[in-house]
Write a structure and sequence with these properties.
By secondary structure, this protein is mostly helical. Helices cover 50% and strands 11% of the residues. A hairpin with a 5-residue loop joins strand 1 and strand 2. The radius of gyration is 47 Å and the shape is elongated.
Length: 244
């Protein structure tokens, strides 16, 4: 939807009106046939139609383009009243700067910032409302450190509140201790499994070394026996040589 034409000061050119809502163009787009529309209006129209609402020429979202620069300049120069005029704002400014003004306008209706409060007040009156709002919060005057709502003043009990917080802290501490205990047990189990696995690997390596040692000893004995036999054969050969 566009800007209500009744808000504008002076004459507004027909070419600056949306062809659908007939209000002054807001965030405008232009079709190839040069008819202009508010972005929201033309997008809504093209959901159910495939042509221009003015001359029925076929158009598509991909064919829409920004407004011509000279038309955009004419649009931005239009003067209009703040939307908070009914609340007392007398500001008149250009369309180009109206959004910035209205974001900061002292007559804008804004919600109370206190949680639970549904009241909306003018921005200029917000501080006064916050001072008396029944949902305003403040620190307990008795020194317990709690933030309380004015509506809860008569129900606030420092001892009860502190006892409740103590119980919550105790429960949280117990929970954290249990979590730390479970985590430690998990780590110990993991380390234990790792050590058992390592021990098994070492045991296998020791058995393999024993087996290799046994084979080496057997080979040594075989070599020694062969050496004795060879020596005996040499001695026998020496005796035979002497006899000859």
């Amino acid at each position: 939807m566009g800007y209500d034409i009744e808000r504008f000061v002076g004459y507004v050119n027909e070419g600056l009106l949306c062809s659908i809502c007939r209000d002054v163009l807001e965030d405008p787009l232009q079709a190839p046939c040069e008819h202009a529309f508010c972005t929201a209006c033309i997008h809504g129209w093209l959901v159910h139609h495939s042509n221009c609402p003015e001359d029925r020429q076929v158009i598509d979202v991909s064919l829409l383009r920004p407004l011509y620069r000279y038309m955009k300049n004419d649009l931005n120069r239009l003067q209009l009243h703040c939307r908070n005029r009914e609340y007392g704002c007398e500001m008149v400014c250009s369309l180009e700067s109206i959004d910035r003004h209205e974001r900061e306008c002292e007559y804008s209706q804004i919600p109370c910032s206190n949680a639970g409060c549904t009241v909306q007040v003018e921005r200029r009156n917000l501080d006064g409302h916050l001072a008396v709002c029944e949902y305003r919060s403040r620190e307990c005057p008795n020194g317990c450190g709690y933030t309380i709502l004015s509506a809860e003043d008569t129900q606030h009990n420092c001892v009860a509140e502190l006892r409740t917080e103590l119980e919550l802290l105790r429960a949280e501490m117990i929970c954290r201790v249990e979590e730390a205990k479970h985590e430690m047990e998990s780590r110990l189990d993991s380390q234990r499994r790792h050590m058992v696995q390592k021990e098994s690997i070492l045991q296998n390596e020791i058995e393999e070394l024993k087996s290799q040692m046994s084979r080496m000893m057997s080979d040594v004995r075989s070599l020694m026996a062969a050496e004795r036999q060879h020596r005996q054969e040499l001695e026998q050969a020496e005796l035979e040589k002497r006899e000859l």
